[in-house]
Amino acid sequence: MNLKLFIRSLILIILLVALGFLLKTSEFGEIIDKNWIDNYVGSNGLKGQFIFIVVAALLVTVGFPRQIIAFLAGYAFGLNLGTIVALVACAIGCILAFFFARFVGRDWVNSKFPGRLSKADQFFSANTFVTTLLIRFMPAGSNIVTNLIAGVSGARAPSFIGGSILGYIPQTVIFALLGSGFHIDLKFRITLSIILFLASILLGFFLYRKYKRVGLDKLILSGS
User: Fold this and answer.
1) If you count DSSP H runs as helices and E runs as strands, how many of each does the chain have, helices first?
2) DSSP string covering 195-209, please?
3) Distance between CA atoms of 39 and 162, rounded to whole angstroms?
4) Cα separations in angstroms, 209 against 67, 201, 204
5) Shortest CA distance to 123 belongs to which of 112, 134, 139?
């Protein structure tokens, strides 16, 4: 599991770096070029950021990787604003998926993940905030699966959403930093983001091994 996760994480970094150079050097990059975004936002208030947040939130809701959202936000808006924009979008996507499962898609989620619901109830009901925070720190799994399973479990909504937002911060900053590196301090920011991401993976391994003894790993592997 550890080797597969490391390889998958390495591939993600490589693909995003390649995407950054593609956006920077090709005509396609003009679509979301930082200068274009700045001018667009400057002449239209917050409309540019709003559109990005809406589109990104909908993508996160249906399972689009939040790391890519953070990368694109960092590329388009820079590190500070990009981190905020990406975090807001991911938070909205998390909330939409959670409440969809709780109020609309409960039967569908129950039929899709029957073997994981009892485990989710066990952990989320005991301490929703801490459980959610630990899961979000893990570098494994699927964000949308966690949102859906939590929605039909005994997870308390405010604690789940708060734990998710706090748990999103490290990787959001890391990937926004990676995206912003294609406009300023290229080598430094890309190198730093890769180092921080590898550090987050090591932290995830530590937490995984620690909580594997109590069975939380079985829930973590179905989502992060």
Assistant:
1) 12, 0
2) HHHHHHHHHHHHHHH
3) 34
4) 23, 12, 9
5) 134
* CB atoms inside a 10 Å sphere around CB 205: 17
The type of residue at 1 is M
Q: Which residues span the domain enclosing 65?
A: 2-220
CB atoms within 10 A of CB 124: 23
Q: Do 150 and 119 touch, CB atoms closer than 8 A?
A: no
The predicted model scores a pTM of 0.77
In the chain, the largest separation of any two C-alpha atoms, in whole Å, equals: 55
Instruction: Give how many domains the chain has, as a whole number.
Output: 1
The one-digit pLDDT tens for each residue of the chain (224 residues) are 455 555 666 666 666 666 656 555 555 445 445 555 555 544 454 777 888 899 899 999 998 888 889 988 888 888 899 999 999 999 999 999 999 999 988 888 878 777 677 777 777 877 889 888 888 877 666 788 889 989 988 899 999 999 999 999 988 998 888 888 765 666 666 777 777 777 777 776 676 666 655 555 555 554 44
Cα dist from 21 to 33, 40, 41, 61, whole Å: 12, 22, 24, 27
Phi, psi (degrees; rounded to nearest 5) at 86: -65, -40
Q: What is the number of other CB atoms lying within 10 angstroms of the CB of residue 12?
A: 17
At position 118, the amino acid (one-letter code) is: S
Of 197, 177, 199, which is closest to residue 186 (Cα–Cα)? Answer: 177
Rounded to whole angstroms, the Cα distance separating 144 from 224 reads 8
